[in-house]
Each structure stands twice: as C-alpha cells, then as structure tokens.
Specification:
Oligomer: single chain
Helix content: over 70%
Radius of gyration: 16 Å
Order of helices and strands: HHHH
Shape: elongated
Number of domains: 1
Strand content: under 5%
Largest sheet: none
Number of helices: 4
Length: 78
C-alpha cells in the first residue's frame, strides 16, 4: 500500500493530493477490515488457508500491475 501513497503527489497538488492520500488510506483500512473475513470464509468453505493466501497473492499482483501501467504525463515542476 505504501507504493500508492506516492501517486497523489505525482498527479495532484495541495488539497487534492491530501484527499487522494486520504482515499488511499481509507481503501487500505477497508481491506484490513474485510480481508480477515474473506480469509475466514474461504477457509471455512474450502478447508485450507492455501486458497486465502492464493486470493491475497492475486490481489497484490493486480495492484502491482495497476501501478506499472500508471503513466506520468510530464516532468514535475517544483
């Protein structure tokens, strides 16, 4: 999730960047709340933590792919 915190400063400025960081933080906290329930549900349904870890790995891979495809529009001026 730390990777995503750098993105708002690259594309937004001022209050917009702060809102972007807050949104990323909220989504991360939502994942921290929902994740254990999903892992427990998959464990109860399928009988193994393997599938919970596989689901988590897929989510991380999707996140990494999204970060790779974010394009920078130009040089940042300080």
């Amino acid at each position: 999730m730390v990777t995503f915190w750098a993105l708002p400063q690259e594309f937004l400025t001022g209050a917009s960047a702060a809102v972007g960081i807050g949104l990323i933080n909220a989504v991360g906290n939502l994942g921290g709340f929902v994740g254990p329930y999903v892992a427990g549900y998959l464990h109860d349904l399928l009988g193994s933590y393997y599938y919970s870890l596989a689901f988590l790995s897929i989510v991380y891979i999707i996140g990494a792919i999204l970060v790779i495809f974010v394009r920078k529009h130009g040089a940042r001026v300080l």
